[in-house]
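ARCHIVE CARD
Drawer: 12
Card no.: 0347
Subject: one protein chain, sequence and derived structure
Cross-reference: see card 0346
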Amino acid sequence: MRAILCSEWGDPSGLILKEISKPEISLGSVRVKVFAAGVNFADLLLIKGSYQVRPELPFSPGLEVAGVVTEKLGENISFEEGDRVIGLMDYGGFSEEVIVNSNALWRIPDSMDFDQASAFPVVYGTSHIGLRNKLALRPGETLLVNGAASGVGLAAVEIAKLMGVRVIASAGSSEKLEIASKYGADDLIDYNKDNLRSQVKALTEGKGVDAIFDPVGGKIFDESLRCVRAGGRILVVGFASGAIPKIPANILLVKNITIIGYYWAAHLTLNPELFHDSFAELFSWFQEGRIAPNISHRYPLAEASEAMNTLIGRKAKGKVVLLLRGGKEQKYRDIESRTN
């Protein structure tokens, strides 16, 4: 089978497409034939060797896959051969076949195509638990979403609106903000043109926002500290800017701000029931047509380096996915006859 391999720590230019042996299935796991894989900022950290998980070289990046179950090993595994699923992994998803722990696997709705499925779990799962359970948003509150045109940012905008929250979206261009507006954002701030703090203050009559969803870090996070009201909350989701902020404790003290650290994937182990409940609600919303990922770029597996460079160049608006076995709109039933 083919897989994208990282053989040395560095940037996407070092990735290679290679024929490798199929992985051996382990007890409690499921073999999945991969049709699409999501590309995430975490994959860039993985190949640099600076992610929370540091695999042994060589390895394949890729945290989320969509495909079809072809084999399982162990008792009490509810999945069957032919099931259409999404799976979460620590790494290894940029491969034509993967082994996924059965606890990190979910059946996908019939109406969900594989490219949508591969773009779904990380951004919607992160946003849903982050907004509902971590920030505990309430109807009528005002939320600032930084990096609002990213995959996780757009998901946060969508979900916050479903929760009855006013959303102020910040992003680095008018084109990106236009997409955030289509996803439901009430107010828009181009932080490359306008001062984030002054714009937020103007939009909130000087009070500041109730909560902030920040996957950006760096100077945007620093400015956000001045945008939250006294007693407000900030959710630290990631550092897409590449800069990890140093938080001045005096501001937290004076303004009674709560800053919440949030590593979504850890909750699959810490609270699996929460994880599965979250996906159940998200799939329901998808089937009702209330949420859907925006996929701005699709690449074949061989162009994984270019796909990752799309994230580095901040060209993505929503999600970037790799297609391993067919066109963007095709489902398993349509593709399988040509790929066996």
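Annotation on reverse: The domain at 123-265 is CATH 3.40.50.720 (Rossmann fold). Confidence is low (pLDDT under 50) at residues 327-340.
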